[in-house]
Specification:
By secondary structure, this protein is α+β, with helices and mostly antiparallel strands. The chain is 19% helix and 36% strand.
Length: 150
């Protein structure tokens, strides 16, 4: 069965839009590859995944901080339940905050801190850490287009 040209173009446009959103950047965790958007400056880290209604399967956001230190994230204006995974400078998982619910309470949203210093934070759809059976100490691999943290 031949795919109509319009359907083929729509399919290609969708794939390209997904790839462009992450610029083809990826990370691997527990044998799974995720296309990621990278937030590596104050403005991008502050905005994060706010105001989005969904996060495509197999996608996430990688936050790269200027210093390895204890981090705390919150879900202010975030509409998607997330797993928040904290990694140290050696890319080892040091803290997991699983299935963190959305929060519309503005500045009254609770923080979700790391238990140890972290340089990288990976946000994935809620349930991914459970599905991967992640354990603290798991190692995150950065794709070649992601500059390591400072």
């Amino acid at each position: 069965m031949r795919m109509p040209l319009v359907a083929l173009l729509l399919c290609c446009t969708s794939v390209l839009a997904t790839a462009c959103a992450s610029d083809g950047r990826w990370v691997e965790l527990a044998g799974e590859r995720y296309l990621v958007e990278v937030a590596d400056d104050d403005a991008e880290r502050a905005r994060g995944l706010m105001f989005r209604d969904s996060l495509a399967e197999g996608h996430g956001m990688l936050f790269i901080h200027d210093r390895e230190e204890r981090q705390a994230y919150w879900m202010k204006n975030t509409r998607i339940p997330l797993d928040i995974l904290y990694f140290d400078a050696s890319l080892q998982l040091v803290t997991q905050q699983r299935s963190v619910p959305p929060c519309s309470a503005g500045d009254r949203c609770p923080p979700y801190p790391s238990r140890a210093p972290a340089l990288y934070v990976l946000e994935l759809n809620a349930g991914e850490a459970r599905r991967l059976d992640l354990k603290d100490g798991a190692v995150l691999e950065l794709g070649p287009d992601i500059a390591p943290g400072r």
